[in-house]
Amino acid sequence: MLNSLPMFLLMIIYVKSMYEYDTKWGMAEPAAYTVASDSETTGEEKSSSFPEIAIGVDIGTSQCSVAVWNGSQVELLKNTRNQKMMRSYVTFKDDIPSGGVSSQLSHEHELLSGATIFNMKRLIGRVDTDPVVHSSKTLPFLVQTLDIGVRPFIAALVNNMWRSTTPEEVLAIFLVELRALAEAQLKRPIRNVVLTVPVSFSRFQLTRIERACAMAGLHVLRLMPEPTAVALLYGQQQQQASHDNMGSGSEKIALIFNMGAGYCDVAVTATAGGVSQIKSLAGSTIGGEDLLQNMMSHLLPDSESLFKSHGVKEIKLMGLLRVATQDAIHRLSSQTSVQVDVDLGDGLKICKVVDRDEFEEVNKKVFKKCESLIMQCLQDAKLEVEDVNDVIIVGGCSYVPKVKNLVTNIFKGKELYKGMNPLEAAVCGAAVEGAVASGINDPFGNLDLLTIQATPLAIGIRADGNNFVPVIPRNTTMPARKDVVFTTIRDNQTEALILVYEGEGKKAEENHLLGYFKIVGIPAAPKGVPEINVCMDIDASNVLRVLVGVVMPGSRQPAIPVMEVRMPTVDDGHGWCAESLNRTYGATLDLVTLQKKA
Amino acid sequence: MSVVVSGSFFLSCSKPSQVHGHLNFQNPMPRWKQNFTVVRCCNRSSWEKPRAQNNYYELLGVSLDSNAQEIKEAYRKLQKKYHPDIVGQKGHEYTLMLNEAYEVLMKEDQRRKYDESLGQMRLRFDNNDMPLGYSTWKGPSRPQALFVDENACIGCRECVHHASNTFTMDEVHGCARVKVQFGDDDQNIEVSIKSCPVNCIYLVEAEELAVLEFLTQPQPKEGYGIFGGGWERPGNVFKAAESFRKQLKREAATRQSQRTGGTVEETPAQAEARAHASMNIKLESFLKTWKWVKEALGMNIN
C-alpha cells in the first residue's frame, strides 16, 4: 500500500487542479480518501438533513454510463455531447489526461495512437502471470509483464515517451469525469455510488475498484455483480406489472445473461413481491474483446509476433487493424458477410471477405464457454430449462446473432424478455439499488425492493495438504456465516498458518489468495487434538471477516484470544506471496479438517 | 464496526451446524427476539442439543406443517423487514439466522433431520416430571377451568403480565398457556381475560379441560416413508374435542351393541365393526394417554 501512496497523492493534486470544486464538499481532503479506501463500505452514512441518493455507475470495459433515481424513475445522465453511453478510455496528452466522458475524439484512430489507455476493467487487479493480461498485449499501448506474479506495467505513449499509469488511475480519471458530469446536472455534491462489477471479479479486484473510487473521492455504497443489478430492475418491473394487474405477484424465475466487451456473467433470480433472490451466479472473463482478438488473429495470423516490439509503427498498425475488425464484427450483426479492406502500410494489406459462419467458427470456444456458463448457473440453482419464466439478454454482445441463438437454443426457442434496454439495464439497476440503499422511499412503492445477494465464489483456506477447503461455498445467500473446524497435523504444533483463498479450484494455488496470518500459542497437545475453528462472516455490504479460535477439547473457552482479520489483506503481488510462504514454511504449519465424531 | 465480536460470540459458533446468536437491537424487541434471548440464555447443559436452542419455525413465523411456498413467503417478508440493506448493519445477525433457517427448512432432508431433533427435544420435556402443557389446580375445585386457545394466541404476554401465577409463556410455541388453574385472585384473572386482544382465554367445563389440553399439543404426524411426518395440532381445538367425545361415545355404543346383539344380526354389526376398526386402533393410543392424564389430574386435585 505504501508504494501506491505517492501516486495516490499525485492523483489528488491532479484532481484538485483539474476540477476547482467548492472545498466544503470535502473533495480535496486526503484524510477522507485514505479512510474511504480502507474503511468498510457500509451504508450507514446517512447525511444530516436529507438522505443523499447514491448514483449508479456502470464502468464497462468499453463503455460507461451513469444513472440516478430522480424521485419517480431512473434517469440516465447525458454528457455535453448528448451521449448516454460514454467510451471508457483515457487519453494522455501533454500533462493532463482526459477521459472519454468529456473529450471528443476527432477520429477513431486517435484512440489507437498509443496515447489512449482503455480496457482497464480487464486488467485491474490482475497479476502478470494471468492469461488475460497476456492477451491484452495486443492492445495499442504498452502492457509489459515480468511473469513473476506482480502487477503488469502499463504505459501510454505521450510525445514519443512511455508514461506509466495503473488501471486504478485510469478508472479514477473517468470516475472523476462521471462525477463532475453528475454534479453539474444534479446540482449537488455526489459522494455515494453503487457500481456494477463482473461476477468473476475476485475480492482483491473489488478492492482495486474501491481504491479507484476513493481516488475519485467517491464512497462505494455497494458493488453489485452486473446481472444482479439487472435482476433488481427486473424485480421492479415485475412488481409494477403485478400492481397494474392487481395480480397476486407469484414467484417468477428469470435467467439473466450479460455479455459485454470484457466479461460474461449469468445469474438466476427468483422474484416475488419486489424481493429478488439470487439463486446462482456464474461468470468468466470472456467477451467482445475476445471475439475481436480472435478475429484479428484470423485476419492477420502472425499479428501477435508482429506486435511484440510495441514500436510506434506497430501500434499504429495495431490500431488500424483493430478499427477495421471491430467495424466488420459490428456489420456482421446485420449482414451475413462483409468485405474487410484495410491498408496497414509497409505493403501489408488485408483484403478479405468474411462471412458470419467464419466469424462463428473462429470464436467457437467463446460461444461454447457461454453455453457452459448458462448450464452451470441453472445446475447450481437446481432448476431445469422449463422452470425459467423469463430469459433476459443484456450487454453489448447481445447484438451478436450467434449469442442470441445459443441462448434461445438452450431455452428451446423461448422468446427472449423484452422491455429492457440491453445497454442500459445494468446501470439502471445500479441506480435503483443506489436509491434503495440510500433509504429513499417512493410513495408508489416503486422502491419497495430488495435483492438478496449470493456469493459468486467459494471462500476457504488451504488445508489437508495443498487443498482448498471451502468454508463458505459458492452461491451462499448473503449475509453469510459459516465455520469449519480444523486441527493440527503434528504433535505439539503450537503455530498454524491460515491462508485464505477465493475461487473454485481444488488445489489452493488455483485460487486467488486473499490473505494470510499465523495462529500462535496453540497449547501443546498430540496432533488432531486442538480444535481450530475457522469462521467466515460476510455482511450485506460484502465485507469478509475471518475469525479463528482455538478450543481444547473439554473446555468451553478459547485457549487463546480469537483472531479477527478483515480480508483481503494482500495489497499486491499475491502470486509470489504464496510461493514465498510455501518456500519459507513448507508444510510445517499446516492444518487438516477435523472429522466430526458421529 | 457495529457488530460486536467477543469471545463469547465466537464460542457460540464454535460448533458447526449451530445457530449463532447475539442480537444488539436497540428497538423494542418483537416477540421472537425475546424468545430467542431467553432460549439462548438457558443453561447449556451437556444433554442439550445445540440445534434445539431456537426454533426455525418460530423464527420464520410458520407452522410446523407449512409447505415450501409458505416458508418462502414468510422468509421474503421478514427479509424485507430486517435485511441490512433496509435496516442497516443491525439487521446482520438476524438475517444470518433467517438464512440458516431458510436453508434448512427448504431442503427436504435437512428439514426432516431438524424436525427429528425438535421432536427429541420435546419428548425429553414430556418425560420430565412436570408434564408440559397440563395445568395444575390451586384452591378448591371449581366447575369451570381456564383454557387458552393456543392457535389463536398471538403471544402478546398480556395475560402473563396480569396474572403471572396462572399463565405462562410457552417459549417454544410462542403462545401463552395456563400453568396453574386460578393461581391468582379472581380479579387479576378477569383482567387478564379481558386484556387478551384476540379473546383466546376461555372458561371451559372442568371435565373438558383435560381433553382440550391434550388435543392442543402438537402431535407427531404419521410419516409414510419419506412423506409426511413432522408435527401438527388441530386447527380448532374445540371442534377436535367435540369429535373426540363423539368418537368416545360411538365406541361405547359399538361395544354395547357388540355385547347385546352378539349373534342376532351378524352382517350389519360386522360391517360397523369393520368401519370402526381402524378408528379403534387409533383411539387406543389416545386412550392410553387419556387415562394417564386422568391419573395425573386426579392426583393433583386430591
SSE arrangement:
The complex is a heterodimer of chains A (598) and B (302).
Chain A: H1 5-18, H2 30-38, E1 55-59, E2 63-69, E3 74-76, E4 86-87, E5 89-93, E6 96-99, E7 116-118, H3 120-123, H4 131-135, E8 142-144, E9 153-158, E10 161-165, H5 167-186, E11 192-197, H6 203-215, E12 219-225, H7 226-245, E13 252-259, E14 264-272, E15 275-284, H8 288-299, H9 303-306, H10 312-332, E16 337-345, E17 348-355, H11 356-362, H12 364-380, E18 390-394, H13 401-410, H14 425-437, E19 450-452, E20 458-463, E21 467-472, E22 480-488, E23 496-503, E24 512-519, E25 531-538, E26 544-551, E27 563-567, H15 574-585, E28 591-593
Parallel strand pairs in A: 1-11, 11-12, 13-18, 15-19
Antiparallel strand pairs in A: 1-2, 2-3, 2-4, 5-6, 5-7, 8-9, 9-10, 13-14, 14-15, 16-17, 20-21, 20-23, 22-25, 22-28, 23-24, 25-26, 26-27
Chain B: H1 7-12, H2 31-41, H3 56-60, H4 68-82, H5 84-87, H6 92-106, H7 108-127, E1 136-137, E2 144-148, H8 158-162, E3 167-170, E4 175-178, E5 180-181, H9 186-195, E6 201-205, H10 206-215, E7 219-220, E8 223-224, E9 227-228, E10 231-232, H11 237-260, H12 266-301
Parallel strand pairs in B: 1-5
Antiparallel strand pairs in B: 2-6, 3-4, 7-10, 8-9
Helix pairs in contact in B: 4-6, 6-7, 10-11, 11-12
Describe the fold and architecture.
The complex is a heterodimer of chains A (598) and B (302). By secondary structure, chain A is α+β, with helices and mostly antiparallel strands. Chain A is 30% helix and 28% strand. In chain A, the strands form seven sheets. In chain A, strands 1, 2, 3, 4, 11 and 12 form a six-stranded mixed β-sheet that branches. A five-stranded mixed β-sheet of chain A has the order 18-13-14-15-19. In chain A, helix 2 packs antiparallel against helix 6, helix 5 crosses helix 6 (203-215) and helix 7 (226-245) crosses helix 14 (425-437). The longest helix of chain A is centred in the middle third of the chain and has 21 residues, at 312-332. The two termini of chain A are 47 Å apart. In chain A, 51% of the residues are buried. Chain B is mainly alpha-helical and 302 residues long. Helices cover 53% and strands 10% of the residues of chain B. Chain B contains twelve helices and ten strands. Chain B has helices at 7-12, 31-41, 56-60, 68-82, 84-87, 92-106, 108-127, 158-162, 186-195, 206-215, 237-260, 266-301; strands spanning 136-137, 144-148, 167-170, 175-178, 180-181, 201-205, 219-220, 223-224, 227-228, 231-232. In chain B, the strands form five sheets. A two-stranded parallel ribbon of chain B has the order 1-5. A two-stranded antiparallel ribbon of chain B has the order 2-6. The longest helix of chain B is centred in the C-terminal third of the chain and has 36 residues, at 266-301. Chain B is flat and about 70 Å long. Chains A and B meet through strand 19, strand 22, strand 25 and strand 26 of A and helix 1, helix 4, helix 5 and helix 6 of B. Chain A: It comes from Crotalaria pallida. Chain A: Keywords: ATP-binding, Nucleotide-binding, Signal. Chain A: This is Heat shock 70 kDa protein 8.
